[in-house]
Amino acid sequence: MPGITREEVAHLGRLSRLELKDEELDHFAGQLDEIIGAVARVSEVAGEDVPPTSHPLPLTNVMRPDVVRPSLTPRQALSGAPAQEQQRFKVPQILGED
Amino acid sequence: MADLTRLTAAQTAEAIASGETSAVDVAQAHLDRIDAIDEKVHAFLHVDTEGALAAARAVDAKRAKGEELGPLAGVPLALKDIFTTEGVPTTVGSKILDGWIPPYDATLTRRLKEAGVVILGKTNMDEFAMGSSTENSAFGPTGNPWDLTRIPGGSGGGSSAALASFQAPLAIGTDTGGSIRQPAAVTGTVGVKPTYGAVSRYGMVAFSSSLDQGGPCARTVLDAALLHEAIAGHDPLDSTSVDAPVPAVVEAARNGDVRGLRVGVVKEFGGEGYQDGVMTRFHESVELLRELGAEIVEVSCPSFTYALAAYYLIAPSECSSNLARFDAMRYGLRVGDDGTHSAEEVTALTREAGFGAEVKRRIMLGTYALSSGYYDAYYGSAQKVRTLITRDFERAFGDVDVLVSPTTPTTAFPIGERADDPMAMYLADLCTIPSNLAGNAAMSLPCGLAPEDGLPVGLQIIAPALADDRLYRVGAAVESAFIARWGHPLLEEAPTL
């Protein structure tokens, strides 16, 4: 198991949408390396025949009747918006200029 | 009437119902106490004076009209800042939600209001409930009322500190890996993680959805039971909510008894890393259970030694996905929206500025564990360990009625000691994590002070899923036996601040 490098931290930061600062890369590299080294032992214990558990309750597809229920008004839904226009969330540019 | 802040929740409700005092007087006494001491403790992030007094006036008006009051009507409560409150700020201890005013109540908030509970304000916590010390709050740490230079536990350190400093008789916590039980243990209070799914997660900001569970915090076992009954029950708005009757926890708390009960001591909890004074008090508790008529059995749960490792893969994996919703588009902080950055860049700049170090660590750890090429070795293996831990519990509960252990390996450590050492911090949850992975029920209650430092030690009781009432039956018996031995509740020995 190779150590976590600062390049890998930068990559994880990009995947996680975190614009990490330069000084954070070294700091997190050491810490993530230590944590991953410690948790890697999970692979020692469980054999092929052990099924995974994703959730404590044996639930599948909990449904409700498909009927209209009261919900937030547009004003309530937009009440925390960083920016809004014409009763919509206003977001920064998502496509390139050309 | 005696100091209203020293009453239990049960006594408070009775005094209000009988007219001995009013809900407004009770609320005002607690608001005055907060005003006098919370500058030192920093249990609250937001105090809702107007809302609390309005709720108290409503209870008094109801009584004046001769209407029946619920068992917690007029009792003040400190609410962890992870539950949404309509019109009252909710930050989850994070800068990314600083200033956000939710437009709706969590189901738990709504139930508290319907029960006539008086919500005093929102309590401090580790950011997004990630931590064991409340030092990860973006708004500064909380002090432990037993020693303000020490941590009050985490993530629910504001709630535990509010109880232990008599700023509220009731509080709400959430427990993903121990965030109700560990703060209870280190502050000499009572905390319960109900069976997974017992308390609705609707309006509770998500960290790790298959582990997160809200629950009651109090100074006595009976008070915790009264609160448990008020907040538990099926909620159609939470698809993982258990559709089963709430166990009779209040009745159990009123009838503490362990005679004939088989109590299992988990062999794997103890040894290296456990403070001597914690083990001394734990062994005394086991002796006490024996004297009270329980049969003590040693049980082995070998997979528990892998619980911490599995947890620190599963919880970060779920958090990396859950926290993707903080994208700076619909609510909360937005940074860098100056016309020169794309939406994606604004998201990354906002998350960088809005999240603290522990949250970033866990998001990246989860992203790593879920990456192709690593998924099977990390997340996949952790899910298998989860199965093995559940099997260990099933085997143990085939032989015993409840399990007991210390709640935490050590008493409250000094603020700053583990702040930048994640692995050392994670060890605080060694004994509490297995119950989150299996989804069963567990309680922490005070079992004395460690001889070497005079700080509270917690006894953990674990019961099978949906048998939460056993926690209260055992807890009430232990609590009354200890109080008889000490001559008073443990918190009487805490500094008065």
UniProtKB/TrEMBL annotation, chain A:
<feature type="region of interest" description="Disordered">
    <location>
        <begin position="76"/>
        <end position="98"/>
    </location>
</feature>
<dbReference type="InterPro" id="IPR036113">
    <property type="entry name" value="Asp/Glu-ADT_sf_sub_c"/>
</dbReference>
<protein>
    <recommendedName>
        <fullName>Aspartyl/glutamyl-tRNA(Asn/Gln) amidotransferase subunit C</fullName>
        <ecNumber>6.3.5.-</ecNumber>
    </recommendedName>
</protein>
<comment type="similarity">
    <text>Belongs to the GatC family.</text>
</comment>
<keyword id="KW-0436">Ligase</keyword>
<dbReference type="Pfam" id="PF02686">
    <property type="entry name" value="GatC"/>
</dbReference>
<keyword id="KW-0547">Nucleotide-binding</keyword>
<dbReference type="InterPro" id="IPR003837">
    <property type="entry name" value="GatC"/>
</dbReference>
<keyword id="KW-0067">ATP-binding</keyword>
<comment type="subunit">
    <text>Heterotrimer of A, B and C subunits.</text>
</comment>
<keyword id="KW-0648">Protein biosynthesis</keyword>
<comment type="function">
    <text>Allows the formation of correctly charged Asn-tRNA(Asn) or Gln-tRNA(Gln) through the transamidation of misacylated Asp-tRNA(Asn) or Glu-tRNA(Gln) in organisms which lack either or both of asparaginyl-tRNA or glutaminyl-tRNA synthetases. The reaction takes place in the presence of glutamine and ATP through an activated phospho-Asp-tRNA(Asn) or phospho-Glu-tRNA(Gln).</text>
</comment>
UniProtKB/TrEMBL annotation, chain B:
<comment type="function">
    <text>Allows the formation of correctly charged Gln-tRNA(Gln) through the transamidation of misacylated Glu-tRNA(Gln) in organisms which lack glutaminyl-tRNA synthetase. The reaction takes place in the presence of glutamine and ATP through an activated gamma-phospho-Glu-tRNA(Gln).</text>
</comment>
<feature type="active site" description="Acyl-ester intermediate">
    <location>
        <position position="179"/>
    </location>
</feature>
<keyword id="KW-0436">Ligase</keyword>
<protein>
    <recommendedName>
        <fullName>Glutamyl-tRNA(Gln) amidotransferase subunit A</fullName>
        <ecNumber>6.3.5.7</ecNumber>
    </recommendedName>
</protein>
<keyword id="KW-0067">ATP-binding</keyword>
<dbReference type="InterPro" id="IPR000120">
    <property type="entry name" value="Amidase"/>
</dbReference>
<keyword id="KW-0648">Protein biosynthesis</keyword>
<dbReference type="Pfam" id="PF01425">
    <property type="entry name" value="Amidase"/>
</dbReference>
<dbReference type="InterPro" id="IPR023631">
    <property type="entry name" value="Amidase_dom"/>
</dbReference>
<feature type="domain" description="Amidase">
    <location>
        <begin position="26"/>
        <end position="471"/>
    </location>
</feature>
<keyword id="KW-0547">Nucleotide-binding</keyword>
<dbReference type="InterPro" id="IPR004412">
    <property type="entry name" value="GatA"/>
</dbReference>
<comment type="subunit">
    <text>Heterotrimer of A, B and C subunits.</text>
</comment>
<dbReference type="InterPro" id="IPR036928">
    <property type="entry name" value="AS_sf"/>
</dbReference>
<feature type="active site" description="Charge relay system">
    <location>
        <position position="80"/>
    </location>
</feature>
<feature type="active site" description="Charge relay system">
    <location>
        <position position="155"/>
    </location>
</feature>
<comment type="similarity">
    <text>Belongs to the amidase family. GatA subfamily.</text>
</comment>
<dbReference type="InterPro" id="IPR020556">
    <property type="entry name" value="Amidase_CS"/>
</dbReference>
